[in-house]
Amino acid sequence: MMILEAERLSVSFGGVRAVDEVSIAVEAGQVFSIIGPNGSGKTTLFNLVSGIYTPNHGSIRFAGETVTGLEPDRLARRGLSRTFQNLQIFLRMSVLENVMVGHHRHEDTGILADLMHWPSVRRQNAATREVALAALARVGLADDAGQASGSLSYGALKRLEIARALASDPKLLLLDEPAAGCNPVETQEIDRVIRSLVRDGITVMLVEHDMRLVMNISDRVHVLARGRTLAEGTPEEVRSNAAVIEAYLGDHGAKEAVRAFG
Amino acid sequence: MPAIVIAALIAILPLLFPSAYYYRIGVLVFVFALAVVGLNLLMGFAGPVSLGPAGFLGIGAYSVAIGPVHLGMPSWLCLLGGALLSGAIAFLVGRPILKLKGHYLAVATLGLGLLLAIVLTNEARWTGGPDGMSVPRLVLFGWSVRGATTWYWIAGATFVAGFVLALNLMDSPTGRALQAIHDSEIAARVLGIDVARKKLAIFVISAIYASVAGSFLALFNGYITPDAAGFLRSIELVAMVVLGGMGSIVGSLVGAIVLVVLPQVLTVFHDYEQALLGLIVMVFMIFLRRGIVPSLAVALAGWRK
Fold it and tell me: Do B190 and A128 touch (CB under 8 A)?
């Protein structure tokens, strides 16, 4: 079953086609990676899929329903969550509170109940806390629950965003460069987390520059260059695609290509 | 816990009051603190800046003046009616203007405040115009509420109630969503938070806080002029929020105390009163830049370590 199908998506900014007629189909339960040189439209594609941008052309279907042009919060309530390349942490809140916000779409109290702190609110707070602690444990941050979020390291903040998205119990999770700026140990940790998500039936879409991580973990890899689809296939197919290597690293990059794609 | 401490302080403090004048100051502190708590929920927690909160204070104040005088309605009903009216206006106006951000939103709310103040000044047939109008006493179950001492307890209890509701709200799904919106709207949205709806809800709640405070102020003073809804009053409320500490409910009380009590203390300096007030506020902000309560909390935490 396809959980996400995007048909010929296009979006332009000031005459520049950031994403140009890109079609993707993501099979449920898989890891689907999008790679490409800087400026090739990977994050823009994520912004289209998560509803932050509205496509000029094309359509998006999520879990069998057309969702083109739907607001991000409506998409989130249908089970599509994401993290950000440049971190979007709630810095005034603790680590635990950040993740508790992730559970918002499942919280069921009215504003009057919230003001009065009725028993339903207390129960909800306790339940949300449980979910958040479990999500933190999954990314290895259980011990930091009480910390101010600003005190975490960069790599830990990356995982905090994943935990926060997890607390929303998504069907499809978009990870935008989760390993960027992470050291090898932290990258290893991200690898482990993604695998555990997939085991639980969450579909993962990944934008990532760390080729080792991408090639290790992906079921399918979609390659973009200048907003257009260059290739798609299994990691093996993409890795040996001459056009991909050339576009990705330039004509003079053959050696680097060999090194990068291993 | 902080609510119990503050309730106890409010109860004990009168033992130290040498005269009725102190009760009067106490009432003013509670009334302003109530409005400031509401404004802090909006500005300090959720983020949208409002430069027109006194507009809603004015609606509350004139509701308990116009209702009884012109329409013969009981004051307590007018207080509730004013709160409803403020909420309704905030709801209608909030929809379009809360889409704006930063300075643009600030100027739009400034416009709203000015508009409400001008209506109150110009509709002289109903409001008495710039001269204002007198406000009949609050009568509850045949008991006429009068005197600073009585009002001290009523305003104090109402403030504590508003304080508790605000703390409750912050420790709830809505409160977490509002704080999230403040730090990253985009992250809040992709987690399923309807940002526009949450902002509107807190704008309405904030207006209701201001309206109730305005009704109390009018009923207590027995007189009301359009200044209650004016620009200077709005700035005063915003200054109380910032001085006490954005996002600190206790700070709202502290901000109100400083800006109500300080001018009274400074009257001994006669002509220099206003200048000194300005200077002191500046010094506070320079040395306690996150507001009095949050800055002291940080300092205390550092000192304990």
Answer: no
- What is the tens place of the pLDDT at every residue in B171-214? 999 999 999 999 999 999 999 999 999 999 999 999 999 999 99
Record: fold of A2-79+170-261: Rossmann fold (3.40.50)
Contact A88 B176 (CB under 8 A): no
Per-residue pLDDT tens over the stretch B5-15? 999 999 999 98
Alpha-carbon gap: A249 to the closest alpha carbon of chain B (Å): 32
Kindly report the backbone phi and psi dihedral angles of residue A167, in degrees, each rounded to the nearest multiple of 5, phi listed first. -65, -15
Interface mutation target, options A91, A93, A101, chain B, most CBs of B under 10 Å: A101
The predicted complex's ipTM stands at 0.90
Contact state of B194 with A73 under an 8 Å Cβ cutoff: yes
Contact status of A143 with chain B (Cβ, < 8 Å): no
* A&B contacts, CB < 8 Å: 109
Fold of B2-304: ABC transporter involved in vitamin B12 uptake, BtuC (1.10.3470)
Name the pairing type of β-strands A16-27 and A2-13: antiparallel
Domain residue extents for chain A: 2-79+170-261, 93-166
A47 and B CB contact within 8 Å: no
Burial letters A18-54, b for 16+ CB under 10 A, else e: bbbebebebeebebbbbbbbeebbbbbbbbbbbbbbe
Q: Measured between alpha carbons, how far is A171 from A2 in angstroms, rounded to an integer? A: 12
Interface contact flag, A117 B172, Cβ < 8 Å: yes
DSSP annotation string for B50-74:
-S-HHHHHHHHHHHHHHIIIII---
> Taking the mean position of all CA atoms in its chain, how far away is CA A25?
16
